[in-house]
Amino acid sequence: MSGGPVQGTEPAVRVRGLTKRFGQTLAVSGIDLDVPRGSFLGLVGPNGAGKTTTLSMATGLLRPDEGSVEVLGHDVWADPVAAKKRIGILPDGLRLFDRLTGLQLVTYAGLLRGMDRSEVLERAGELIAALGLTDASDKLVVDYSAGMTKKITLACALVHGPRLLVLDEPFEAVDPVSARTIRGILARFVDGGGTVVLSSHVMDLVERICTDVAIIAGGVVRAAGPLDQVRAGLSLEDRFVDLVGGSTEVEGLAWLHTSSD
What we know:
By secondary structure, this protein is α/β, with parallel strands linked by helices. Helix content is 34%, strand content 23%.
């Protein structure tokens, strides 16, 4: 990927003091994070670390108890229309209007953004072709595979021409061919000056495609910055284990090594 953070400019995303509680549980605890413009940032952390909650608050889907988020200079909560106009979102487990065809779904997403119908149809066709879904454009989304569903949802996130993409587990349950197609689209987006934030459990994937990384655990950011700086000479997986902690040793299960004859 030839894109990279744009130096000397305001960050694409500026998070300050972001906090969220669910009852007695503190899910996100005063997070501060800057996402450089033109970067491809991977947000990684164990299950329950607060990744999805953080992304939901950063994109205006969930109101924080405390803190602020600015997207390309626009406060997500004080000026939500301006901020959301610049964001494309692919949430994990998003419920779709899956009784629409692929083309209808992308068209609907564009019309919801206030776009002209002719422009929406032109862009939808280009996105569907780029994502390898032309033959499925007239099929109901309910009949799509997991990989196809991820791709059509990405098309919905891109149709209005955002400058920031926020993707929650975009490669989960996606076959290798679909994953490569999605990576190619994201690489072109960053090369064109866009910024991507994605959450993932797959450390090898983040190391391959991301320029920056933030490691989150227990609702706080343990490390953030350029990938090589955060890794500190280790693999991302080893650095992650060092920062997050927890035992990786397996004890017992001796019966797995015995014959069942």
